Automatic annotation (TrEMBL):
Protein name per its UniProtKB record: Flavodoxin
All copies of domain NADPH-dependent FMN reductase-like, residue ranges: 16-161
Pfam families in the cross-refs: FMN_red
Top-level taxon in the UniProt lineage: Bacteria
Gene3D superfamilies hit by this protein: 3.40.50.360
Amino acid sequence: MTTTQTPINALILVCTLSPSPKASSSDLLARQVAAEFKEHQVSTEILRIADFNVKPGVLKDMGDGDQWPAIRQKLLSADILVLATPIWVGHPSSLAQRVLERLDAELSETDEQGRPILFGKVGLVAVVGNEDGAHHVIADLGQGLSDAGFTLAAQGSTYWVGQAMHTTDYQDLQQTPEVTANATGIATRNSAHLARLLKASPYPAG
């Protein structure tokens, strides 16, 4: 049996193409996810991938200044991984795709019982954009996270999309739409619950 007192933490990777300190709708939604996690006693850390030199490749360390290894260590220490991304031409951002590519290196990593090392972790997807495609992006990232070994909770995603062919961003809204706030609440609550379950009762070894 698990309780909300079980300490867990989440790493939130914001995959906007804009480096800090530029305002970002993806970062805004990520911070709202972090605020909701706090309500469930989940500590969080937010990193913006554009602020780091994450080299392309499928190895744990691509060398020559690659900063993914430090991010990877934070990921391995986290119980929950959140990928927050904008929609670009109907797809996740290139940086979100790069994160998935770097996670490919974990497929061959196992724990002392022979289980893939990411099996005990939960994935959550957060998406913003000014066009249709949120479900497609969530499907892409969710499948990628599942392949790497993450488990996704029921309704474990949140998103907002604006009117197609218009210029309003999520960060431009006067207030968060109720449906998005509700989705964020459900996704964080269920992800925290699932992470505690997996921590108390891991997947069986093969």
